Structure formats: structure tokens, C-alpha cells
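job 3f2a | input accepted
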Amino acid sequence: MPFCPSCGAEFRAGYIQCNSCLVPLVASLEALDEESGAETEFAAGGLHLLSSFANESQMAHARRLLDGAGVPSVVQEGYDRNVEGGEPYQIYVDEDYLEEAQAVLASYYSPSLITGEIEGNLDRLQSELRRIEREQKNLAPHLQTVVKSVERLRADLQALNRMLDEAE
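job 3f2a | predicted structure (168 res):
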């Protein structure tokens, strides 16, 4: 079975490219040595553990940052921490990209990035509230209260971002 060297997805025989990452598939990926937990070499070369993540959304966000910076990475699939006995999601990078990847990941933890992510979630929330309001006219007064709260939160986040910018 072929695998995507970028996201680690497994494909049926005959597929030659990952439909998500748009990269050529490889014959196999080697996982971590389960007994020692030590890194092993993946088929594409020596990869180093960059970081582990508690849930899929954190991992996906970090992965988007790496992709945006042109840093190739491989994900070892895991399970959210609330799954008993589950392993975390792990991102691996080639040694040649390790320092750059660490710098990109450091930006993941910066306050302005986190508030930016929250603002994006607020945008999605407002869109969903508008959709619900169109479908459920009887909820309009209640939804307007939530919309006003979201707008206040957005204003508070913008003020926080200004303070963070001034502090730098």
C-alpha cells in the first residue's frame, strides 16, 4: 500500500499522489520504534521529531504554519489525549529543515498568533450564527445577544493585539 510522505495517509494500490497534499506517494513509512520510543528513519530519509501535539487541531495548525514557510514535514498520526492510552500527534522534519522548523513552531506559541487564531474562530462563529438566524427566525433575539458578545470579544482581542504590538 502506498503512503503520503507528508501527511502519512495510506492509499489503495494504484494511487500515485496524495489527494490532500498533492505530493507523490511512497511505498512505505517506518514508524517509531515502539519499545524504545526512539526515532527511526522514514523511507524518504532521516527525519527528526519536531514536536508532539495533544490534539489534531493543534497539529493541523502547526502543520499549516510549516507548509506556509516551505518546510516539508511528516505527521505520525495519533489520538487526542482524552483517548485512553492514545499517543499524541507527532510532526517530523528532515534534519536540513530542523532549525527553520523550530523557529516556525516558536511562532506558533506567540500571543499574536494565538489571538489571530481566535479571531478566525470568531469569524466562523459569526457566519454560523447568521446561518442559524436565517433558518431559525424564532431564535433571532437570542442570537443577536450572542452576536453582540462576539463583537465585544473581537474588540477586546484587537485591543490586546495593539498592546502586544507595542510591547514588542
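job 3f2a | Residues 31-44 have pLDDT under 50 and may be disordered.
job 3f2a | closed
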